Amino acid sequence: EAKRQGKHRYAQFVPIMDLKLRKRKQLEIALRQAINNNLLELHYQPIFSCAEQKLLGYEALCRWNDPTLGSVSPDIFIDIAEETGLIEPLGRWVMREAIREATAWPAELFVSVNVSPKQFYRKSFVDSISNALREHQLAAHRLEIEITENCLVLEPESASKALFELKEMGVSSALDDFGTGYSSLSYLRNFKFDKLKIDRSFIEFLHLSDDDQMLVRAIIEMSSSLGMTTTAEGIEAAEQLQILQQLGAHQVQGFLLGKPKNAMTTKQHCMSELLSAHSAADGD
Ligand code: C2E
Ligand code: MG
Ligand code: MG
Ligand code: MG
User: Fold this and answer.
1) Residue 252: CB within 6 Å of ligand 1?
2) What is the Å distance from ligand 3's center to 151 Cα?
3) Residues 112, 28: Cα–Cα separation, whole Å
C-alpha cells in the first residue's frame, strides 16, 4: 500500500518538475541570447544622505526586458545566471557598463555594483575591475561593490583576500541585505566592510513595530562602532525616513526617494539634483 502510494506520488511529481525544468531551460537559452545580443540594461537607483537627502550615488540594477518573455525579474535571472555560469559574462558586462556610465556623472557621485558569489570568487575578479577602472578612467573610490553573506560562506579566506585587495585599490565594499543571511556577526569580525546595507525587511514595518526599531537602532550602533556606515534599503514612507533620521542612519535608498531609472534619465536626474543642491547652498 505504502509502495503504491509512493509510486503514485512519484508519478504526479515528475510532470511538475519537468515543467519547471523546461521553463528554466527556456529562460537560460533566452538569457544567453540576451547577453550575446546586448539586450540587458542597467537602471540606477539613487542613494541619499539620511540627514539632508543629498544625492551621494546610485546602485546599478540589471534589467532584462525580453522581446518574447517580457520583463524578467533579476531575482529570477540572476539566479539562473549563477546556476548556469552565465553570471560570468553577465557580471563582467554589468561591471564595465556601470563604470562607463558613472564617468558621465559628476565626480562626487559613486556607483554601486551588485556582485554574486561565482563572480566574486573568480581569480580574475579584482584584476578585471582594475582594468575596467583604468580603461574608463574612473577613480577607484567612486566604485563600490555590494556582496551578500552568501559570498562569504563558501570560502571566507579567499573572500577576505579579494576584499582586502579591493580596499587597497580604493574600491569600497558593502554588505548587502544585512540581517537576512545565516550567520551575520562572524563575518563582520573577519572583514570590515565600508558599508552595511540594512535589508528592506527591517524597514518595511519600521513605523509600526517597536521591535524593528530596536533592531535597526542596534544595527546602526554596532556598525558605527565598527567604523562602518549604514544604508537603509526600501524606504517607501515618510514615517520610515523620519525614524531612520532619529536613529542616525547614514544613507537611505527607496521608492520614496527615487526608483531605479535608465541611464539617460539618471544623467538628467543627477545634474538637476546637483544644481538644486548648489543653489540651495548659495541661498544660505
Ligand atoms: P538588491 O541588491 O538588494 O537591490 C535592491 C532591490 O530592491 C532592487 O530590486 C530594487 O529595485 C528594490 N527596491 C529598492 N527600493 C525599494 C523600495 O522602496 N521598495 C521595494 N519594494 N523595493 C525596492 P531589483 O532591481 O528587482 O533587484 C533584485 C535583486 O537582484 C537585487 O537586490 C540584487 O540582489 C539582484 N541584482 C540586481 N541587479 C544585479 C546585478 O547586476 N548583478 C547581480 N549579481 N545581482 C543583481
Ligand atoms: Mg544591492
Ligand atoms: Mg539589498
Ligand atoms: Mg537583494
Assistant:
1) no
2) 14
3) 26
User: What 8-state DSSP symbol labels residue 184?
Assistant: -
Cα gap 214→211, rounded to integer Å: 5
What's the rounded Cα separation, in Å, for the pair 84 and 119? 12
CA-based angle 189:193:198, to the nearest 5? Answer: 100
Q: Indicate if ligand 1 lies below 6 Å from the C-beta of 258.
A: no
Distance in angstroms (rounded) separating the CA atoms of residues 75 and 200:
15
Let me know: does 77 contact 64? Beta carbons within 8 Å.
yes
Angle at 155 (CA atoms; ends 229, 28), nearest 5 degrees: 90
pTM summary value: 0.93
Q: What is the mean pLDDT of each run of 10 residues along the chain (284 residues)?
A: 52 70 93 96 98 97 95 96 96 98 97 95 94 98 95 86 95 94 76 93 96 96 95 98 98 98 97 86 64
Pick from 42, 43, 61 the residue to mutate for probing ligand 1's pocket: most ligand atoms within 8 Å of its CB.
Answer: 61
Cβ–ligand 1 contact at 57 (below 6 Å): no
CA-closest residue to ligand 1 atom 29: 75
Closest by CA position to 215, among listed 232, 228, 194: 232
Q: Count the Cβ atoms, other than its own, within 10 Å of residue 267.
A: 15
Q: E strands along the chain, which residues?
A: 40-49, 55-66, 70-72, 110-114, 143-147, 172-178, 195-198, 229-232, 251-252
Q: DSSP letter at 284?
A: -
Does the CB atom of residue 151 touch ligand 1 within 6 A? no
Contact call for residues 180 and 199 (beta carbons, < 8 A): yes
